[in-house]
Amino acid sequence: MKNKRSFMWVVSLIVLAMMVLSACSGGNNGGSASQSPSDSSAPPASESSSPPASESEGASGDFCAEGSDPIVLKFISWKDTYTPLYDLFHQKYPCLTIEQIPVNSQPIMEIIASLEAAGTPADVTEIDSDLVAFDQNGLVEDLTPYIDKDLTLQGVTLPKGFFDTMTLKDKKLAVPMVDVPMWILVNKDLLAKNGLEMPPNDWTYDDFREYAKKMTNPDAGEYGLTTQAEFQMRLLSTKAIADGHAANLQYMNEDLTQSVMHTPGVLDDVKWLKEFVTKDGSLLSNAEATAQGDVTREFINGKTGFAIGGDWVLPKLKESAQFEWDVLPFPKGKISQPGYTIYGPLALLSGSKNKDAAFLWLSFQFTKEAQMWKIDQGANASIIDPEIDAYYEQTPMWQGKNFAAVQIAKQNAVIQPGVTIPGWNEYNWNNILNDIIFGDRDINEIIPETEAWNKKTLELRETLK
Predict the structure, then answer these.
(1) Pick from 51, 117, 173, 352: most CB atoms within 10 A?
(2) Does some domain include residue 370?
(3) How many angstroms separate the CA atoms of 305 and 186, rounded?
(4) Tens of pLDDT along 72-112?
(5) Average pLDDT over residues 140-149
(6) Are 409 and 339 in contact, with CB atoms under 8 Å apart?
(7) What is the reported pTM?
(8) Paired sense of beta strands 183-187 and 325-328, if any
(9) What is the rounded average pLDDT for all residues in the chain?
(10) How far is it, in rounded angstroms, from Cα 54 to Cα 291?
(11) What is the Cα gyration radius of the chain?
């Protein structure tokens, strides 16, 4: 209830501010203008109610029949390169147009409140915090009834446990907008300069460390690892799974109820990565990287051997890198070789005036044309389909690259948790490890912080029953 009251308080403040602005505008209808930052040239949204639910079940012609009113769907998103996908959606549903509402570092709940207060509510949103808070504030729809009748989603095969990280109390609160895999980016020129061959796909964490040492040459300003938080954010918690020290990413236990970040095995993993800085010299601390002009913070500079990358780095690398690069899967540990993937939650907002039309944008993500487009950008497929699997070998994205590593990353991927874990935003796994690995914070501070959060998340979980 506290979160609900907080959200309504934000809405009230925004409404009050808009009334004041309207009164000061001299009757120019400033308060009724669209609050969208987008310069969409699409026709205005229809004021009529959304079509009956049954109309959203069929093909595009069933929804956008001749004479259908045009609908503009407001989509709150970080995606600044997705215009081609919006166009594909419009081709499939000619009466529907996506208008992106940029996030611009503003909390998404505030954007939702602002649009609600303006009388132009958003329809669909990406999620920037835990889904629990969005559900408690009544902001997102349960997708279960929509999914159960949708022909697209009923016609595809999804991986086992596909909705697990986005389901709360039997409610499916979101679908993945995109499945973002992680890889180790490799500077092949720096390998060759040091007389090294491209590592095999079954390389180990010991191999990873040795390669990093051999590519380090401080006199030339060259280092084994890029100075980026991604190494502790992605690689370290994946290593904990690979070595049997944790069951899930971010050091979570099997049922995602407790953190094991304070246990001896994980603490040893943290010490292992810290030694890249303090012992091997293959990874610069934040202070050292700054002192050297921040050159080692960007893999594309060509001064570092390894980096962690996802689909967002690929276009720039393909366009601008002045060296030969490739990808490798995350290394093998003592018991397994897991990978790391991120689901970007995509939710239908309860304040939408066009829910059935808006759900079509969610459903469209699982069509073959959308899946292939995302593969072209470097993402994983979200559906299991032989045609989609074969497309990996056809896409220009991976021509001439280590395609087998891409397959391994997809097959071995472990999904990043968090969106339905109570109190996830208060779990300080990220900042504290940054301060330890790249700074001088005491590793022992992990123990009381983790114990305190474990207690807090259990208490919050009890309130949700």
Answers:
(1) 173
(2) yes
(3) 6
(4) 999 999 988 899 999 999 999 999 999 999 998 899 999 99
(5) 96
(6) yes
(7) 0.80
(8) antiparallel
(9) 87
(10) 62
(11) 24
